[in-house]
Amino acid sequence: MPDSNEVEPTAVEPSAPQAESSHADPALDARTPESAGAAASTASPSPRPGLSRRGFLLSAAGAGAAALAAACGRDRAPTSALPTPTATQAGGVSQLPTPIVGNEHYFPIVRNGAAPEVAALPATLAPTETPTETPTPEPPTPTPTPQATPFPAGPPSKLGLFVARNDPQIFDLVATGAITLVKTLELDANFAGQIKQLSPSTQIVGRLTLEQVDLASFDPLAAARNFMAALLPIAGASDRRAVFDGWEAYNEPIAGSTDEMKRLAEFEAERTRLMAAEGLRAVVGNFGTGQPPLEYWEHFLPAIQTAKEYNGWLGLHEYSAPTIYHASTRENQGRYPGVSATDTGWLTLRYRKVYNEILIPRGLAIPLVFTELGVDGLVTNRPGPPDAMGWQEFQGWWAENGYGLWGPGAYIEQLVWYDQAMRQDSYVLGSAIFAMAASDGWQSYDILGPAAAVLQQYLSVHAPV
């Protein structure tokens, strides 16, 4: 990784990361250049071939108006800057014994700017021996390697994985027993069954390939029936019934008006009822990062109410960049900002605004799953390298700005921060880091390899007792 002539730690303890925006195989995702339109951004480049740009809310504090960045078939450029976030009163949270205001530092150390051979690290993150002799008459110089201080034990994690395809390293993480959620495009029942064998408590959410919905010309009831006709042959099979815990519908739908949001709510409510009649659970919403505008949520409440009646879940995606803290009340507070139950955000931690201000007061705090989560450069109006997409392309920026010299460890630090926040909210079931074993086009988001090794060690000491 980037330069370092100093002793610099890199990987974490109690801490954690951002939107389901077509973070899957472009061929599988609902949004394609044909169905979604490219978005203009002053801070991010045009979408790369085969990829679509996600949108998010740019709210003006106290104004009640929202300008949407383009995504999912809409082509609107942001018209205002992100407001300065302010903390809101938390409600319905399960507090930790004491508020977390800082983090202990438990990371590998990298010296003298050498690129560590991180791929060789075992799951325990113990350092490996390196040759100390050279054929030259000069005194031998050891090759630097990460010197890992493992994460100490802590409360059960709420982190999980977004999986696009099967890979053996997935099961190394699942075997820790700490993976709360797997969101997957791999619908093979044997694959899901192996996850359940290793970790029976892991919740598995599946998603079909659907054309992106046009809510402007949308018949909600007919669409719900068509969805069931496509879903039932797959989800209704006995082998999948035994291992899948919930099913999404449209990926990151965007309502451009209150009428469109009402249509979406009617669709989600009807498909929830139809699925429940077949013994299947619906995951409703599945909104992208920063979506929908807060003032639109009241028009989605019929779907939330129906999900509550039929044991459904709410699905959200949360991303930010260049760090997971960006646009939250913990932004610009350093590499280890801590998090409390009153912190919120306009991208990550946005979910607390929805629950504390809208759902909890109405008695609708249904279980929440983040079916995508992480660092994503496709959000707009952000600092950092303009062309960067997944976390791998922010490693240099992190090193230059004090967020860690070794990228894989620095990313897990940010994800652990988010894990801390989720543990403070009892309604959160789990989250899916995007991505592990990513599809073509999304490799810069992939945590396979060294990052997964760091995450594995963290999970191994944050599993349920």
Task: Give structural notes.
It contains eleven helices and twelve strands. The chain has 465 residues and is an alpha/beta fold. The strands form three sheets. An eight-stranded parallel beta sheet has the order 8-7-6-5-12-11-10-9. Helix 10 runs parallel beside helix 11 (450-460). The longest helix has 20 residues, at 258-277. Mean pLDDT is 78; it is low at 1-132.
What's the arrangement of secondary structure elements?
Layout (H helix, E strand, L loop, with lengths): L7 E2 L23 H4 L20 E3 L6 E3 L40 E2 L50 E3 L4 H7 L6 E4 L4 H10 L4 E5 L12 H16 L2 H4 L4 E3 L9 H20 L5 E5 L13 H9 L3 E8 L30 H9 L8 E8 L19 H6 L6 H17 L4 E9 L13 H11 L5
Parallel strand pairs: 5-6, 5-12, 6-7, 7-8, 9-10, 10-11, 11-12
Antiparallel strand pairs: 1-4, 2-3
In short:
This protein has a domain at 158-465: Glycosidases (TIM Barrel, Alpha-Beta Barrel). It is built from eleven helices and twelve strands.
Percentage of residues in DSSP E strands: 5-15%
Mean pLDDT: 78
Architecture (CATH level 2) name of one domain? Alpha-Beta Barrel
CATH secondary-structure class of one domain: Alpha Beta
For the sheet with most strands, the description reads: 8 strands, parallel
Using brief descriptors, characterize the structure shown:
disordered N terminus, single chain, 465 residues, 11 helices, globular, 8-stranded parallel sheet, TIM Barrel, alpha/beta, two-stranded antiparallel ribbon
